[in-house]
Amino acid sequence: MLELEKLSKAYTSGDYALKDVSFTIEKGQVVALIGPSGAGKSTLIRCINRLVDPTSGTASLNGKNITAMPTRKLRQVRRQMGMIFQDYALVERLTVMENILSGRLGYVGFWRSLFRKFGPEAENDAFGLLEKVGLPGYEDKRADALSGGQRQRVGIARALIQNPSLLLVDEPTASLDPKTARQVMRLIQDLCHERNLAAIINIHDVALAQQFVERVIGLKAGQVAYDGPPEGLTPEVLTEIYGEEDWSATVRKDGDEGASEAETPEAYAVEKE
Amino acid sequence: MAVKFLSDDTKKWQRHDLKTSLMIWSGWLAGLVLFVLCWQIISEATTWFFVFDAPRIAEDIFTRAMPPRWEYINELWEPLWDTFNIATIGTGIAILFGVPMAFLTANNTTPSRYIIRPICMVFIVASRSINSLIWALLTVAILGPGVLAGVVAISLRSIGFFAKLIYEAIEEIDTTPVEAIRATGASPLQVMAYAVWPQVKAIFVGVAVFRWDVNIRHSTVLGLVGAGGIGLQLSSSLNTLAWPQVSLIILAILLTVIFSEAISARIRAHIMNK
């Protein structure tokens, strides 16, 4: 569904942020993108929706080449790619509802969006998503009145109301405490399964990644250093990606199933903060 | 920032090294000398007789001005209303032009960094560097005396003020929401409306209220050059040495300014609480 072909991003200084990155992601596949800071993870997902323009190579979504698209077309393709950010990237002075509905901006004209007329269908969707991410009744709160975990839920709802087929997720848990981080990852995982969404999740926490995804891509200095199942992340592979370190506590042991409570939606639905 | 090695191998830290310290102290000394020199020049150019005489003259004018000629107030209502309107309409027009200009100027929202931004910059500097009284001299010459000249003068001065403060606010916004809104497939105009504008809105309201308040004060003097408002009465009263009228006008101006200040303080407090 998403196909990267020798995607590269060079800075004017001649340094490469990304070099010849190629991989394919199938419909509904959830992929973790790991690698040290500065390896190009954020640049990679921004090259896919062209918040950053790649220097060479192509990225295609459902066979359509995104890299060569004129702006108007690009906006239509961006609607199919929901993005979730590390620092939530909500518009703090807008309400939760306005933030969520802003995910529909690609579908309505300027004047309609200016007067917040997104249509009854979008509004219904928004209420449904609020329920889904565990924030019913929060629609009129201002975004800056929410806690980190709550903001990230709003960010997730904003991405999902786009009705995307791919999620680009940039360090969703880096600013969250361990419990909230797990809840947010589980929420993303469940939503992807439920809606058959593909996702690329940039993540620092290797153990967390192993717990929630079916495929891991390791990036090192802008190049793919590993591509395989989470079980394949041996100490040797991690050393290859990150460099020498004691990895014994990080590598997943057999029978260490973190997803045991994944079936209960209550686990993330109620969060009193 | 200097680190000195002492004989016993310990390090000593000083904020400035010797050379910098000397330069700073000689700078202060030069400033002092300049001040004394200026004092001397001013002193030579002053007719001290008039200065020593000042308290007597001031007292003389004060006694002539008191009590104010209260019945003159009936001739002041209309010019006061004009003054208020000049400030308010002038501020409104300035917002209408200044805010779009801020978006055209700010580094991160300008459509053209090398053509439109510099042009706007030049206009902003011109608008800001010329006092509204001087703008009024020009507009009175061009449009003829009256309220219209005052309105145009006030707005010409304020456009640059709005544009500058708001474009600086735009340049300081958090860029992550901008990225997020762009990523949804929003058009550039929608990005402005959803990611940029909410971040500068509070500043905009604060600036608008503050500028309106300033403009009330400015518009009270515009009449001195014929641009309408209460300044006209002030200048004719001064010219005819009608001191009781002058004192009443000054009192009226004072009350108007207090009134506008009270209003703007309330509006500002209202925004802060939001």
Write the layout of secondary structure elements.
The complex is a heterodimer of chains A (273) and B (274).
Chain A: E1 2-10, E2 16-25, E3 30-34, H1 41-48, E4 56-61, E5 64-65, H2 71-78, E6 81-84, H3 96-101, H4 110-114, H5 120-132, H6 148-160, E7 166-170, H7 178-195, E8 198-202, H8 206-212, E9 215-220, E10 223-228, H9 235-242, H10 266-269
Parallel strand pairs in A: 3-8, 3-9, 6-7, 7-8
Antiparallel strand pairs in A: 1-2, 1-4, 4-5, 9-10
Helix pairs in contact in A: 5-6, 6-7
Chain B: E1 2-5, E2 11-14, H1 18-45, H2 48-65, H3 77-105, H4 116-129, H5 132-143, H6 147-171, H7 175-183, H8 188-222, H9 231-239, H10 243-273
Antiparallel strand pairs in B: 1-2
Characterise this structure:
The complex is a heterodimer of chains A (273) and B (274). Chain A has 273 residues and is an alpha/beta fold. Chain A has a domain at 1-80 and 166-175 and 197-273: Rossmann fold (3-Layer(aba) Sandwich), CATH 3.40.50.300. Chain A has helices spanning 41-48, 71-78, 96-101, 110-114, 120-132, 148-160, 178-195, 206-212, 235-242, 266-269, and strands spanning 2-10, 16-25, 30-34, 56-61, 64-65, 81-84, 166-170, 198-202, 215-220, 223-228. In chain A, the strands form two sheets. Chain A has a six-stranded mixed β-sheet with strand order 6-7-8-3-9-10, sandwiched between helices. In chain A, strands 2-1-4-5 form a four-stranded antiparallel β-sheet. In chain A, strand 9 (215-220) and strand 10 (223-228) form a beta hairpin. In chain A, helix 5 (120-132) crosses helix 6 (148-160) and helix 6 packs parallel to helix 7. The longest helix of chain A is centred in the last third of the chain and has 18 residues, at 178-195. Chain A starts with a strand and ends with a helix. The model of chain A is unreliable at 254-273 (pLDDT under 50). Chain B is mainly α. Chain B has two domains: 2-59; 75-273, MetI-like (MetI-like fold). In chain B, 77% of the residues lie in helices and 3% in strands. Chain B is built from ten helices and two strands, in the order ββαααααααααα. In chain B, strands 1-2 form a two-stranded antiparallel ribbon. In chain B, a hairpin with a 5-residue loop joins strand 1 (2-5) and strand 2. In chain B, helix 5 packs across helix 6. The longest helix of chain B has 35 residues, at 188-222. Chain B is flat and about 75 Å long. The two termini of chain B are 45 Å apart.
